[in-house]
Amino acid sequence: MANVFFLYNNFYDIEKKHIGVGGIQTYLQGLCEILLERGVKPYVYQFSNEDFEIEINGISVCGVDVSKTRSYKSKKMQLLKSARKKLDAKDDLLVFASESVLVPVKGIRTVCIQHGVEWDKPTKRNWGVAAFCRSVYKHVGQYRRLFAMSKADCLVCVDYNFVNWYRAAFPDLKINYRVILNFSKILPIEREKDGNTSIIFARRFFEYRGTRVFARAIKRVLEKYENLRVTVAGEGPDEKFLRSELEGDKRVTFTRYSADKSLEIHGKHDIAVVPTLGSEGSSLSLIEAMSAGCAPVCTDVGGMTNIVINGINGLMIRPDENDLFEALCSLIEDPQLRETIAENGKKTVLDALSYDRWKKQWSDVFEEFGVFKEKVQ
Asked: I need a surface site. Which of 46, 172, 231, 272 has the fewest CB within 10 A?
């Protein structure tokens, strides 16, 4: 029986004693579930400040001490070297859980997962000679990264935005890719009605995730409407800013929750806001919000454009404070529009973005590489 080895930089937090919070960590857990159901052993190798090996729900997590290794490239090589000590090149499959840890390697079957364009984050620099040089340097770096991805036996992309960029930027580079959009499980959720319109922002607190656009827009919304309840869920470097802007309003609640509670938490809200400025694939946050019956407001960034049709299963806006304010006002003032969008969003997940569909597509990949001996019907 073949084993599958995943490489990633940060899966398990050894200090906090739990799997990290984030889209890729959730994605990896989903892949491990698929393997374990078929009797295949998953191994996850990650960067660490000390060597360790632990078992979590059937997953062997191996930390590789890279604390004395300076360059990121050397850390990736060290991670690969550690995994190869246990990996059987004849039978096992090596999966780079993100292109960020990809190392072109021969003699081993490899899959790389591309989680969306992440070099589209806006900058505050003025255009000029220096900015032009930075742009050229960035494009050269993108080509080098893309060339490395082309060396994997299969590149699994989570959205079509990356594929369109790759075709437009480097049409002569041949890559064996397939697109598997992200997913959500479907749970029965009874929504509680308390007379308030409830809004949730559940993201890692980074500026490029839209924290500041959200804060400015939601302050205006709170000033305009009385019967509101706002939940800000997550953690990150912009938490201090968010709290300074919003914590004084008693209608705003700050919280944190584990990934397995996402649907339950979203199910208590009417509207979900995903105001990303850049670096977004087929957003798990967006899909989970739709699955839970929230009417989503998202920006026209990355793979979210593969999911939402504006006005049908969500409201899609520019990453702009005024656009977000107007979209939220329209959903607050028109409950029928809100309910119709929410229902269409849930149907979108059920029909096209379900866990079962994602599981079948990934099972096909594993079968193609001989990980599963019997084909799933």
From this structure: 172
What does the H/E/C string look like for 47-66? EECCCEEEEECCEEEEEEEC
Answer yes or no: is pLDDT of 376 > 60: no
Domain 197-352 listed as CATH 3.30.70.890: no
What is the tens place of the pLDDT at every residue in 59-108? 999 999 999 998 999 999 999 999 999 999 999 999 999 999 999 999 99
Longest Cα pair distance anywhere in the chain, in angstroms?
64
Q: Residue 160: which H helix or E strand, with range? A: helix 160-169
Q: Residue ranges per domain, the chain?
A: 4-183+355-368, 197-352
pLDDT at 189: 75
* Nearest in space to 296 (alpha carbons), one of 159, 336, 307: 307
Identity of the amino acid at 202: A
Q: Kindly provide the residue ranges of all beta strands, DSSP E only, lying in the chain, ordered along the sequence.
A: 4-7, 12-13, 18-19, 42-48, 52-56, 59-65, 93-96, 109-114, 154-157, 177-179, 197-202, 228-233, 252-255, 271-274, 295-299, 315-317
Question: How far lies 287's CA from each of 109, 136, 291, 294, 349, in Å?
Answer: 31, 34, 6, 10, 7
DSSP-derived 3-state class of residue 24: helix
User: What is the structure's pLDDT at 377?
Assistant: 52
| Same fold across 4-183+355-368 and 197-352 | yes
Whether the Cβ atoms of residue 63 and residue 51 lie closer than 8 Å to each other: yes
**Geometric angle at alpha carbon 69, from 52 and 138, rounded to 5°:** 115
